[in-house]
Write a structure and sequence with these properties.
The protein has 199 residues and is of the alpha+beta class. Helix content is 43%, strand content 21%. It contains 3 helices and 8 strands, in the order αββββββββαα. The protein has a 4-stranded mixed sheet, covered by helices on one side. It has a 4-stranded antiparallel sheet with strand order 4-3-6-7, with no helix packed on it. The N terminus is likely disordered.
Length: 199
């Protein structure tokens, strides 16, 4: 084999080994553990004070207690204020003038607050999603327990919805949340029975 042929064959092999080396390094650097769950996105709501449409309460979630207070900025007026963030990332303001608000933390999260029907729709959807997840978890747990105890002909019996506090869904939102919970519960219950009851 002459020198020119050896160089011609060697060059692509060298390029391949360099490419594989970089890829292998990338594989080695890939962590083997799952990434941590992302924190809840910052969100806030403006709720008119009962009996006084000139006043409102601003509440929110998804903020970082370590970054200090949340600042409230009324975007359609001169109102504003601050609120303290709890360990759970939530806050509730004192009375502020009714209007539209943005909230922010220094070097932290920012959110445009929802009000009126938009806020109600968002609150409704939060509950529907939460109840669907709760129903699926409870249904599977209950179905698995009964199946493992040998009760393979059990029927699903969803528990009652949890009590709600603060800015709460309206009656239609609660109805949809109950339906979502019960459907998820029944599906998960049946899935657990099928999985753990073997002939």
């Amino acid at each position: 084999m002459n020198r020119r042929t050896r160089i011609t064959l060697f060059t692509p092999l060298m390029a391949c080994s360099l490419a594989l080396g970089a890829t292998a390094t990338g594989w080695a650097a890939t962590p083997r553990t799952a990434p941590a769950a992302a924190p809840a996105a910052a969100a806030c709501f403006v709720e008119l004070k009962a009996g006084d449409a000139t006043k409102a309460i601003v509440s929110g979630e998804g903020f970082d207690k370590a970054k200090g207070k949340v600042f409230l900025d009324q975007t359609d007026g001169g109102g504003g204020g601050t609120a303290t963030v709890g360990d759970d990332g939530k806050f509730t303001s004192g009375e502020v003038p009714a209007g539209k608000y943005k909230v922010f933390q220094n070097s932290g999260a920012t959110a445009t607050c929802l009000g009126g029907q938009e806020a109600q729709d968002a609150i409704n959807q939060q509950l529907i999603t939460k109840e669907r997840q709760r129903g699926a978890k409870e249904g599977f747990t209950d179905g698995k327990a009964l199946a493992q105890a040998g009760t393979c002909n059990a029927e699903p019996k969803p528990p009652a919805n949890q009590n709600l506090q603060g800015l709460v869904p309206d009656s239609e939102g609660k109805k949809q949340a109950k339906e979502a919970h019960d459907q998820a519960y029944n599906s998960a219950f049946d899935a657990a029975i099928k999985r753990y009851c073997t002939d």
